[in-house]
């Protein structure tokens, strides 16, 4: 149990703390390290900078857990505006979008989320880029994979995400490792019960390697989302063993975390995609990432102390 968890979650709900954190100059810098800003222009400016550094990008408009359809519509409109801008500014071949289905109505109605995701995919296609569906807590996994299946009938390039902390994930990895299938593998960021997820980090890491092997052995396009230096090394080794060349898979890391490692991998010829969150809802994003799991708290605290 993370001793900071309840404190951080209480802070996340407290309006006065939120105002202080949001306006203090020091925390503005901290926030800006992990979040591109609040507007489409902020997101585009950060994307341009990363692209100029030889990186690729996936953008996340912050606004998960939507429980009203007006908010879901606002999220869809924000993605449509962003995709237009990426196209207009010549960035769409290097920057895609990541979408949380809960932000476009999944908690209200699966069909609404599917229809909203379709609108975003249509706009991505027109802009000349792709969409990845983020994976959220385990109660949404089947629904998210159902929606993925529907979207892929029209847009086979829609990216899936699987989480190595779930017991089910090796099966999902094997099933998803088909030709043309873009699959992001991450450890998983939600607090999950032992009935569905490995409680021990060592088990989560071993599962990550098993799933990575399954993806590399298949015909799809694996996207390895981790900052873990050990896993990055193992991926390099396994990719070579499977005869995978740079460009037939990619590395993904969060904006602001291990930026020098991102550049190092890119300079070695790898595709490195930086996950860039932006939007007015950044406060909840930061607080939840810290509170969700013990590893995430230390992960962000460590990141504040070192940029390497
Ligand atoms: C691109 C991307 C997309 C994601 N999408 C999703 C998603 O859709 N669904 C979901 O549930 N989760 C998602 N996640 C979050 C993910 O599941 C993990 O919670 C998060 O990435 C932390 O796990 P980690 O693999 O980086 O390893 P951790 O176990 O957090 O860290 C492992 C090791 O990495 C190293 N490390 C970490 N940070 C630093 C640092 N700042 N400096 C130096 N070393 C460091 C340390 O050696 C540390 O021990 C995503 C993550 C990324 C990167």
Topology:
Elements: H1 5-13, H2 15-23, H3 25-34, H4 40-52, E1 56-61, H5 69-88, E2 95-99, H6 110-127, E3 131-133, H7 141-154, E4 160-163, H8 169-176, E5 182-186, H9 201-217, E6 221-225, H10 229-241, E7 250-254, H11 259-267, E8 271-278, H12 282-292, H13 294-305
Parallel strand pairs: 1-2, 1-8, 2-3, 4-5, 5-6, 6-7, 7-8
Helix pairs in contact: 1-12, 4-5, 5-6, 6-7, 8-9, 9-10, 12-13
Bound molecules: flavin-adenine dinucleotide.
How would you describe what is shown here?
The chain is an alpha/beta fold and 308 residues long. 53% of the residues lie in helices and 13% in strands. It contains 13 helices and eight strands. The chain has helices spanning 5-13, 15-23, 25-34, 40-52, 69-88, 110-127, 141-154, 169-176, 201-217, 229-241, 259-267, 282-292, 294-305; strands at residues 56-61, 95-99, 131-133, 160-163, 182-186, 221-225, 250-254, 271-278. Strands 3-2-1-8-7-6-5-4 form an eight-stranded parallel beta sheet. Helix 5 (69-88) links the parallel strand 1 (56-61) and strand 2 (95-99). Helix 6 crosses helix 7 and helix 8 (169-176) packs parallel to helix 9 (201-217). The model has no long low-confidence stretch (mean pLDDT 90).
- Average pLDDT works out at 90
What structural class is derived from the secondary structure elements? alpha/beta
Q: Which percent range describes the beta-strand content?
A: 5-15%
Question: Using DSSP, what is the number of strands?
Answer: 8
Ligand kinds: flavin-adenine dinucleotide
Tell me the distance between the termini.
Answer: 28 Å
* Tally of alpha and pi helices: 13
Instruction: Round the Cα radius of gyration to an integer and report it.
Output: 18 Å
The backbone outline, from C-alpha atoms, is globular
What is the topology, as strand order, of the major beta sheet? 3-2-1-8-7-6-5-4
pLDDT < 50 runs, ≥5 residues: none
Could you give a short account of the major beta sheet? Answer: 8 strands, parallel
The H/E string reads HHHHEHEHEHEHEHEHEHEHH
């Amino acid at each position: 149990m993370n001793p900071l968890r309840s404190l951080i979650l209480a802070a996340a709900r407290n309006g006065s703390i939120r105002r202080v954190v949001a306006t203090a100059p020091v925390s503005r810098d901290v926030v800006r390290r992990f979040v591109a800003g609040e507007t489409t222009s902020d997101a585009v400016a950060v994307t341009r900078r990363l692209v100029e550094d030889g990186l690729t990008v996936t953008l996340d408009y912050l606004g998960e857990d939507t429980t009203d359809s007006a908010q879901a519509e606002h999220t869809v409109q924000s993605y449509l505006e962003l995709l237009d801008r990426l196209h207009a500014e010549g960035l769409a071949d290097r920057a895609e979008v990541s979408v949380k289905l809960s932000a476009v109505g999944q908690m209200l109605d699966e069909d609404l989320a599917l229809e909203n995701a379709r609108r975003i995919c249509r706009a991505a296609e027109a802009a000349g880029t792709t969409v990845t569906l983020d994976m959220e807590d385990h109660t949404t996994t089947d629904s998210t994979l159902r929606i993925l299946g529907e979207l892929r009938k029209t847009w086979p390039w829609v990216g899936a995400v699987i989480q190595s902390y779930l017991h089910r994930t090796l099966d999902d990895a094997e099933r998803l490792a088909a030709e043309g299938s873009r699959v992001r593998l991450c450890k998983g960021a939600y607090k999950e019960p032992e009935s569905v997820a490995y409680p021990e980090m060592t088990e989560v890491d071993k599962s990550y390697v098993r799933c990575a092997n399954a993806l590399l052995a298949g015909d799809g396009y694996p996207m390895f989302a981790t900052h873990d230096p050990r896993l990055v090394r193992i991926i390099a080794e396994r990719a070579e063993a499977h005869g995978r060349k740079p460009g037939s898979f990619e590395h993904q890391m969060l904006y602001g975390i291990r930026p020098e490692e991102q550049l190092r991998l890119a300079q070695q010829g790898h595709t490195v995609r930086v996950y860039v969150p932006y939007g007015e809802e950044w406060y909840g994003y930061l607080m939840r990432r810290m509170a969700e799991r013990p590893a995430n708290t230390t992960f962000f605290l460590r990141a504040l102390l070192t940029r390497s």
